[in-house]
Amino acid sequence: MERASMLLERCASRRSRRDALHKEKWALQLELDRFLRVDQIEERERTSGADTIEYERAILDAAAEQSIEEKPETRGGAVEGPHEGSCRFRLEPADGG
């Protein structure tokens, strides 16, 4: 009888340990799945170029500013934006002439 009691106690102890390991495995599996999903999303963004959009926009803005600074002869003429034909407006001289 004592032997059966020891075996049941050992079985309960091992079952408890197994359950704890099973919970830890599921927590780690969820963390891994979450990581892989985020990595997959980031890879799609890299492939599509989404990670360079702000950089490219900054380059276009800087180029537009530089082209405006380099063309003082455009006073009174048409000024184009960074993409040809994308933006046209007339600058009139301040003296009204």
Kindly report the spatial arrangement of strands forming the biggest sheet: 1-2
Which sequence of SSEs, written as H and E, runs from N to C? Answer: HHEE
Question: What is the terminal separation in angstroms?
Answer: 114 Å
The proportion of strand residues reads 5-15%
Number of strands: 2
Taking all residues together, what is the mean pLDDT? 81
What sort of overall outline do the alpha carbons produce when their principal axes are compared?
A: rod-shaped
Would you mind describing this structure in some detail?
The chain is built from two helices and two strands; from the N terminus they run H-H-E-E. The chain has 97 residues and is mainly alpha-helical. The protein has one domain (2-71). Strands 1-2 form a two-stranded antiparallel ribbon. Strand 1 and strand 2 form a beta hairpin.
Features:
2 strands; mainly alpha; rod-shaped; 97 residues; single chain; two-stranded antiparallel sheet; 2 helices
Concise synopsis of the structure shown:
The protein has 97 residues and is mostly helical.
Provide the fold topology:
Layout: H1 2-48, H2 53-70, E1 78-80, E2 88-90
Antiparallel strand pairs: 1-2
